[in-house]
Structure formats: C-alpha cells, structure tokens
Design goal:
The chain is α+β, with helices and mostly antiparallel strands and 166 residues long. It contains 4 helices and 9 strands; from the N terminus they run ββββααββββααβ. Helix 1 crosses helix 2 and helix 3 runs antiparallel to helix 4.
Length: 166
C-alpha cells in the first residue's frame, strides 16, 4: 500500500514515504536522532518501530534488531519494514503475505521498500535516485520518493506522503 526509504548520511537519519493510505505519516515513519530510522508498513504494526529503535539504541545492528522484533510478531508475514542505523547498516523485510508487487532493496546506508506497487521498477528507480543525488540527506530522500512516484509508485494512486528525520 506504500513505498518508502529509510536512510542515513552518518550524521542524520531520515525517512520518506508515499501511499494511497490516508495519513501515512501517522503510521509508517519512526526516527530517533543519533539512533536510526524505521518504516513500518503493509499491515503495519507501529509498535515494531519503537521496539526496533530501542534495540538499535542498545547496540544491535539493523539486521539483528529487525530479526529480534519480527520474532516477537505473530503477524510478521503481513508486515514490511525498512531499518537503518546511524552507523549506516540497513536491513529490510517483506512478509510473504504482502500484496503484490511487494519487495525491498538494501544498499549502503539505506533501504527502500514497497507493496501494491506497479512493479519492481519503483524500488529500482528509488535506489538509483538516492545513490546518484548529491547534497543533504533530505534532498536525497525526496529525490528517491519522487523517482518512485515517477516510476508508477503505488498502483492505486497517490493520496498521502510524509518525511521525518532525527
């Protein structure tokens, strides 16, 4: 139902998200300065965002925090998450019950993820745009989101977007 990016430049962390889902900014983005950023989407469980941030703060890697949080969630196959730590490690998860097209790409210092997309090209264009854009983190996040939208984005259309940083 949504596509998003979580990223860091080693100083700041941020997230950008777009969706047909109304008020997406109230559910998907979770960020804490100096710690990391999390996107909780699909049949979102926002508690996972807070839990993962606490696990990152305790010193776990993005991947280990993601795995630990998912192990505590019985609805994990309907979830989609992206995680990045201030250290630059990133991880993502797409449950087997997320509506097609659903997937994710993890790169150096970022993760892009989405579901109910027109196809994998949305995530591919987001990743390429983020990597190619120079400048502030916020500019790179918005460039990635714009590229995802231009590639077709959420196949149901657009209705809501949000950004956040820490």
């Amino acid at each position: 139902m949504t596509f998003s990016i979580v990223a860091t430049d080693g100083v700041d962390v941020g997230i950008a998200v777009a969706s047909k889902f109304i008020a997406v900014g109230a559910i998907v983005p979770h960020a804490r300065a100096g710690i990391g950023a999390v996107a909780t989407q699909c049949y979102a469980n926002p508690r996972l965002g807070s839990l993962i941030l606490r696990l990152l703060e305790s010193g776990l890697s993005a991947n280990d925090a993601l795995i630990k949080a998912l192990n505590e969630d019985s609805g994990r196959e309907e979830r989609q998450l992206g995680v990045v730590s201030i250290r630059g490690d990133a991880a993502a998860y797409t449950g087997s019950k997320c509506p097609e097209y659903a997937g994710h790409i993890v790169g150096s210092g970022y993760a892009v993820q989405g579901n109910i997309l027109v196809g994998p090209e949305v995530l591919e264009k987001m990743a390429k745009a983020f990597e190619a854009k120079r400048g502030e983190l916020v500019d790179k996040l918005l460039e990635a989101l714009t590229a995802g939208d231009a590639a077709g984005g959420d196949r149901r259309g657009r209705q809501s977007s949000a950004t956040g940083s820490g």
